[in-house]
Amino acid sequence: MSRYVESVLEVVKNRNAGEPEFHQAVQEVLDSLRPVFSRHPEFEASGLLERIVEPERQIFFRVPWQDDHGKVHVNRGFRVEFNSALGPYKGGIRFHPSVYIGIIKFLGFEQIFKNSLTGLMMGGGKGGSDFDPKGKSDSEIMRFCQSFMNELYRHIGADTDVPAGDIGVGGREVGFMFGQYKKLTGLFTGVLTGKGLDYGGSLVRTEATGYGTVYFCEEMLKKRGTSFEGKTVVVSGSGNVAIYAHEKATQMGAKVVAMSDSNGYIYDKDGIDLNLVKQLKEVERKRIKEYVKEHKNAAYSEGCNGIWSIKCDVALPCATQNELDGAAAKTLIKNGCIAVAEGANMPCTPDAAKAFVDNKVSFGPGKAANAGGVATSGLEMAQNSQRMKWTFEETDLQLHRIMVNIYNSAKEAADEYGTPGNLINGANIAGFMKVARAMMAQGLV
Ligand code: NDP
Question: Is 213 near ligand 1, meaning CB less than 6 Å away?
């Protein structure tokens, strides 16, 4: 059955030339699925893999906007509606200069299986633009978001495709896009998630990805007979996911000693002062190096990769794809790290992930460990449909329950398919099976 996987991989690489991140994401999933196809020859007979690696729809569009000096800029917009077997397409929008179709496809592909793992009825999609929000005024951000929505609105809807935030897209951007969608369509529906609390947003959505990553990691630690209590933790990034991973790990008794941004990292042996990081990053939108002006005992180092040389028990990469490579993984293992949970999407390179698994470091792959964000987006959709608002405690409880279920599904699938403890295989197989069964049931569409 390996031959089937190989032939599909070859087609993916040839047909999507110059998209290495997409190849990497597909390769990882398909490698895990080899034992599935031996047990289910009907999947090959119905061309299931060939269909699942090809997006149902890809939308490319022009996004013209004017800066505060009246100068016109043109960016590219993307929305990839990858798979709707389980529900409306669901997945975030990323604004970052590195965005191109290969990044959106890698993220959209991962999203299919992640959304399936949550147990909620959501298909997979992703979108974004090569727009760089750094250094832009609020008015420029608003004009860009409005222009982006001027095209996107015709493709999305509460029952068709429900975007959310991702890198560079937080509450402010979602608000601008929601306002423009409403203006263009006259509809006040749950068409975007991550909305403000006053107009349909869900409590816990802001915290969800970071909290969920820590809930997932807690299950991995429990399996080793331990917990976050007294652990030293390194968290990369200082955005939405990183901040709330820090918050929950600290609430559980851990000490977070390092965080980063795309310029460098801070190390504070007394534990990073999260309130200051929130002030710098969420309110003032400043660089992480400003931290050491307030905390003289802390140190700032240029460059991001050095963060992994800091000794820790648990590492939570929460910044971006391929930020933790094989050499960094070796250093973490040598320094006694026992657990790694991916808050970001695909932050560990394939050789880093392999090194963790081979060395019995508990490893939570992103599509399982960071599924709390989209899970809570699913809860936001449910509340919008009900025209109801749940309490923080109620929503957090549901998030926690979903993360424990995801861990158990991944663990059980890894056991069932002969790779106990390998949560990469477990998450890929558990996520895939539900989508596969739905696609088989729905016929050749
Ligand atoms: P944000 O834009 O809020 O934050 C990203 C953070 O990562 C910023 O601090 C950024 O720094 C930093 N960063 C970027 N590149 C690097 C790098 N090479 N090394 C170190 N730090 C870097 O994004 P999110 O927190 O929302 O997303 C982070 C990751 O989590 C992404 O992979 C995203 O896809 C994933 N994710 C997010 C979800 C969500 O709900 N938000 C859900 C599931 C996954 P700078 O300010 O310098 O750019």
Answer: no
- Is-catalytic flag, 126? yes
Question: For residue 397, is it within any domain?
Answer: no
The pLDDT-based confidence of 111 (bands split at 50, 70, 90) is very high
Q: Do residue 275 and residue 174 come from a single domain?
A: no
CA distances (Å), 393 to each of 49, 227, 228, 244, 249, in order? 40, 22, 21, 16, 18
Please give the pLDDT value at position 2: 80
Does residue 316 lie within any of the structural domains? Answer: yes
Residue 240 Cβ inside 6 Å of ligand 1? The answer reads yes
- Extract the tokens encoding 307: 């963060």
What pLDDT does 210 receive?
A: 98
The alpha carbon of 169 and the centre of ligand 1 are apart by a number of angstroms equal to: 10
Q: Establish whether residue 341 lines the binding site of ligand 1, counting it when its CB lies within 6 angstroms of any ligand atom.
A: no
Same domain, 251 and 323: yes
Cβ burial, residue 399 (10 Å; 0-12/13-18/19+): buried
Q: Is residue 37 part of a domain?
A: yes
Distance CA 93, CA 107 (A): 10
Å from CA of 126 to ligand 1 middle: 15
pTM of the model: 0.96
- 304 close to ligand 1 (CB < 6 Angstrom): yes
CB-based contacts of 251, cutoff 8 Å, min separation 6: none
What value does the mean pLDDT of the chain take? 97
Residue 426 lies in a domain: no
**CATH no. for residue 282?**
3.40.50.720
For residue 1, pLDDT over 80 is answered with no
Residue 229: CB atoms within 10 Å:
9
- Cα(186) to centroid(ligand 1), Å: 33
Considering 105, 126, 195, 411, which one is annotated as catalytic? 126
CA of 34 to the centre of ligand 1 (A): 31
pLDDT digits 0-9 by tens, 222-248: 999 999 999 999 999 999 999 999 999
Q: What percent of the chain has pLDDT over 70?
A: 100
| Full domain range(s) for residue 47 | 1-54
Structural domain count, the chain: 3
